[in-house]
Amino acid sequence: MAPLDDQELNTAIQNAESLAWSVRGAAGRQLAGSDEIEDVADVIHRLLLDAQDTWVIQETAEALLERKDTIGLRHVLLAYSQAGTYDTVDQLGDALDCNPEWMTTQGADRLIKQYRELATDPDAGVRNEARQILAKLRPREEWARDSEADS
């Protein structure tokens, strides 16, 4: 995604307050791809916990994960750790579990490395969510051993 200039960034921040779910979702996608992500972290967090429409949550979470960086993943984990409704937990959990990066060895390796880094995050919520996800994963060595045994 192309970097947002100041006017586009300000417009996206304003659109995050819109009554229309489609406008909020588009704003979440824009802000998630911004180079200024730390400056708009509170707005992104609010969109990840949008109480009015799960599509806003989905669009924002997917855009953050599409960054393929630790900061995007961290934002999703932080919101996941603070989600207060079933729908929000479900939407954020789906974004994390169904991340297409899990489908490739390179993507999965990158995600595991990022989760390991986040398992030592200063925020307890992020740290605990990262550790729980890592605990569900089988080491690659076990998969290889099981595949050889099946052959």
3D structure, described in words:
The protein is mainly alpha-helical and 151 residues long. It has one domain: Leucine-rich Repeat Variant (Alpha Horseshoe), CATH 1.25.10. It has 9 helices and no strands. Helix 2 packs across helix 3, helix 2 packs parallel to helix 4 (54-66) and helix 5 (70-82) crosses helix 8 (124-136). It is elongated and about 55 Å long. The chain starts with 5 loop residues before the first helix and ends with a helix. This is HEAT repeat domain-containing protein.
Low-confidence residue ranges: none
State the CATH architecture: Alpha Horseshoe
Share of residues in strands:
under 5%
Structural class: mainly alpha
CATH third-tier fold name: Leucine-rich Repeat Variant
Q: Give Rg in angstroms.
A: 17 Å
Report the end-to-end length measured between terminal Cα atoms. 44 Å
Number of helices: 9
Question: What is the domain total for the residues?
Answer: 1
- CATH class descriptor name: Mainly Alpha
* Dominant shape: elongated
Question: What labels describe this entry?
Answer:
0% strand, single chain, 151 residues, HEAT repeat domain-containing protein, elongated, 9 helices
Chart the SSEs and their pairings.
Elements: H1 6-15, H2 21-32, H3 41-48, H4 54-66, H5 70-82, H6 86-97, H7 105-118, H8 124-136, H9 140-150
Helix pairs in contact: 1-2, 2-3, 2-4, 3-5, 4-5, 4-6, 5-6, 5-8, 7-8
Protein name: HEAT repeat domain-containing protein
Organism: Streptomyces fructofermentans
What's the short version?
Helices cover 70% and strands 0% of the residues. With 151 residues, the chain is an all-alpha fold. It has a single domain, classed as Alpha Horseshoe (Leucine-rich Repeat Variant).
